[in-house]
Amino acid sequence: MQVLDRPRLSGARLATYYLALLAGGALIFWLVNQAGQSLAAGGPSLGFGQGTHHDNGMIARLLLALAVIMATSQSLGKVMARVQQPPVMGEVLGGILLGPSLLGWIWPTAAATLFAPDVTAALGVLARIGVILYMFFVGLELDWALLRHQGKSTLLISHASIVVPFSLGALLSLWLFPTYAGPDVPFHVFALFLGVSMSVTAFPVLARILTDQNLQRTRLGALALTCAAVDDVTAWCLLACVLAVATSSPWLAAQTLLLSAVFVMAVLLVVRPLLQKLTSQWQDRRQDLGLVLIFSILSAAATEAVGIHALFGAFLLGAVIPHNSPLARSLMQNLNTLVSVLLLPAFFAFTGLRTSIGLVQGSQAWLTVAAVVAAACLGKFGGTWVAARICGLKNREAASLGVLMNTRGLMELIVLNLGLELKILSPTLFTIYVLMALVTTFSTTPVLARLRREVPEAPTPLRLLSR
């Protein structure tokens, strides 16, 4: 388009016109205001002057809190990467340090100002949205082809890494229930939840550790990813059952599980073919990404409505989208930064505000921490190692797999927050299990590195994995 060929205005003339424009606008408003002073308002009273000035202050404080959270998470994430730990663990640690465990202890005034109740409530909303989208991404990362190709032995190893820690967690509840359970918490709900809490493996954190250790394309890496995927799917199904039992009577729990099964079948038989058709015809259109997100949000809302958690709906919807499809990759590229840089750190900070290491006082409490950590490690490592040895792995490979499966990370924190929100866990027991999640995850990389530094054994084929 050709611009009209006219002489350009000089700077002085342009400034004159600009000042005349502003003066004209001000004069018109002054005249209008003078004329309007004699008018009487005839509408209903709206409470002028009593509106949202305090909300604006909350928004400013929320934005400040988010900036502090993001800066802390990014800084500690880089520190963790330098010491061969997954950066996400720096973000987890940053959230805890911003809570009463450190900031609230050394500078309570700043903590109370930065994380006032209204700011904390808003953070909670952002945290829940972030976790729902995160679970959608976890579903996207599941490679069902890998699960199908690994054979029946993978099922044995992964379920041994669930059943053994689940059993130890249930046994541990006999000791913990009299001290840490509330009077209105049924024992069977408490025992079931502690069992599931011991059974979780952090599939995404495990994948990051394997990448950092250059193991993702080895037999051990493929086996660990497959077992962790099966582990997570099974553990989340168990947790759905526990939540249904915890929040309903037996009949309502049965109804919830039945509705959940109907919903799963609807997703597999109706939604999945639609998404596969969309994937095959996908042309990098923004409206298609929006359509998938609408599906994921509706799926999350549906599982929340039937009585389990919104996380399950988001996870299921992500799992039925083909793992290596351009659509899945585009979703990760377009949304992963928002979730990982803003929303997940909000979840870590929200978790940190609920975690107070000061609640763990006295030798008895720290003995409980040691017992929980020991049971978690023994259950995951022992169950995985025994099953892997039965399936034909050499001792060091089986031990390495057991160490990898003991990674709990963010998935454990999600489970623990559900337990705290449902009043199954007391704040003290919640803190104890958060410490367990940190210890088991931070120990994975150094223990695995030590196993790899030792003289390797001759590789042994997985005799049963091909069956």
Describe the structure.
The chain is mainly α. The protein has one domain (72-453): Na+/H+ antiporter like fold, CATH 1.20.1530.20. Helices cover 77% and strands 0% of the residues. Helix 6 (117-141) packs antiparallel against helix 15 (326-354). The longest helix is centred in the middle third of the chain and has 31 residues, at 250-280. The chain is globular and about 90 Å long.
Give a summary of the structure in a few sentences:
With 467 residues, this protein is mainly α.
Q: Percent range for helical residues?
A: over 70%
CATH architecture: Up-down Bundle
Number of helices: 20
Report the mean per-residue pLDDT as an integer.
83
CATH topology: Na+/H+ antiporter like fold
> Which segments are poorly predicted (pLDDT under 50) over 5 or more consecutive residues?
455-467
Distance between the termini: 69 Å
CATH class categorisation: Mainly Alpha
Percent strand: under 5%
Number of strands: 0
Compressed to H and E, one letter per element, the order equals: HHHHHHHHHHHHHHHHHHHH
Q: Please give the radius of gyration in angstroms.
A: 27 Å
Sum up the structure in keywords.
single chain, mainly alpha, Na+/H+ antiporter like fold, 0% strand, disordered C terminus
Protein topology:
Layout: H1 11-36, H2 53-82, H3 87-97, H4 103-106, H5 108-114, H6 117-141, H7 144-150, H8 152-180, H9 187-199, H10 203-212, H11 219-247, H12 250-280, H13 286-306, H14 310-319, H15 326-354, H16 362-390, H17 395-405, H18 409-421, H19 427-442, H20 444-453
